[in-house]
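Sequence of Formyl-CoA:oxalate CoA-transferase (Paraburkholderia sediminicola).
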Amino acid sequence: MTKPLEGIKIIDFTHVQAGPACTQLLAWFGADVIKVERPGSGDVTRNQLRDIPDADALYFTMLNSNKKSLTLDTKKPEGKEVLEKLIRESDVLVENFGPGALDRMGFSWERLNELNPKMIVASVKGFSDGHHYDDLKVYENVAQCAGGAASTTGFWDGPPTISAAALGDSNTGMHLAIGILTALIGRDKTGKGQKVAVSMQDSVLNLCRVKLRDQQRLERVGYLEEYPQYPHGEFSDVVPRGGNAGGGGQPGWVLKCKGWETDPNAYIYFTIQGHAWEPICKALGKPEWINDPAYKTAEARQPHIFEIFGTIEAWLADKTKFEAVDILRKFDIPCAPVLTMKELANDPSLRASGTIVEVPHKKRGSYLTVGSPIKFSDMKPEVTASPLLGEHTDEVLAGLGYSRQDIFNLREIKAV
Ligand code: COA
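Predicted 3D structure, token representation.
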């Protein structure tokens, strides 16, 4: 089966997570992704948090599947020459170096555009060009703080909190992938490449859109009725942290199930969707609440929402999180068990769908990774192992027209 991105050649000048997540996705969908790495060390994640001595760390293997690895010192003239050849015949260059690093290497946007006017140059930076912080290097948690996620996550009586989800890194990579695909379609129409830039701050803020909604509502009316602070608590002039409250019109909370005293994940998320009030009352054995004016409407329920959650928790006390969801799903109530990484890794449905996949690796044996979360009717993205450092150097150089002697000479001068 041919894959939609077959024939698209990508120079993957990325490291750590944001850039690699983007190029990995494009590689799954068929692009020829050549990861350019520093000889001797490569992407820093090859060595970070290793669990097997002398084998690439999972941090690297889980973000660089389906790629080739070319080692090249792009600060040396011989390395620059190879890179220039590669640029001339590639469709996309993706990078997420610190601000100015590519320019210092001699590959500014103008120079890249001169070498290959059809090439798309895609960059991740912490902040957008021209932003007053655009000189800063940025990692995940920095972006979560700068993009509004941290100030709005956590409990009102605790500090700003970081999410475990990679809102700054992988999320930015996904935004960049959309930008690259858009620029490729644009190029089909104009014949020209362009620069695509995504900042981590902007990508986090894009996911915090509803919090900007709340800021404006707060400024207009002085309170936010779906937050636990309403109606008894205080609001200041900024969106507060709402704990586990639902972000839309349906109140929700994380509720204890059987075993919570010893199992930190014996919880479900329970949503009180307006039209599900009747089934909820029936499920809880509280039919008298269905038409009680103190409970009947969302507005009436809000002042005593925690009393309602308390009643639901009492009902949950003798049910495991899985038993509870099996009952509630019959009543069309939006809910889910709080799942651990162990449960997800072993989930038969995720294995069957290809969302959790086991990948054989030359040095590690097999490892688990998250496969494509995007499913297609005509293509099943196959996940292959991440490359060893420099595994494809000879192959890529030969493809660029270098003879065996040239390749040997390049190795001798340590440019590759
Ligand atoms: N050959 C020779 N030199 C190479 C090379 C190669 N193949 N690949 C990279 N380099 C050099 C670069 O030219 C640069 O050198 P310079 O600083 O002397 O100009 C250096 O390696 C890389 O610098 P930098 O990207 O700043 O690395 P860092 O480890 O100091 O910072 C980050 C890491 C992630 C903080 C930084 O890259 C960054 O802010 N990136 C943008 C935001 C981002 O993507 N962050 C999230 C990562 S998940």
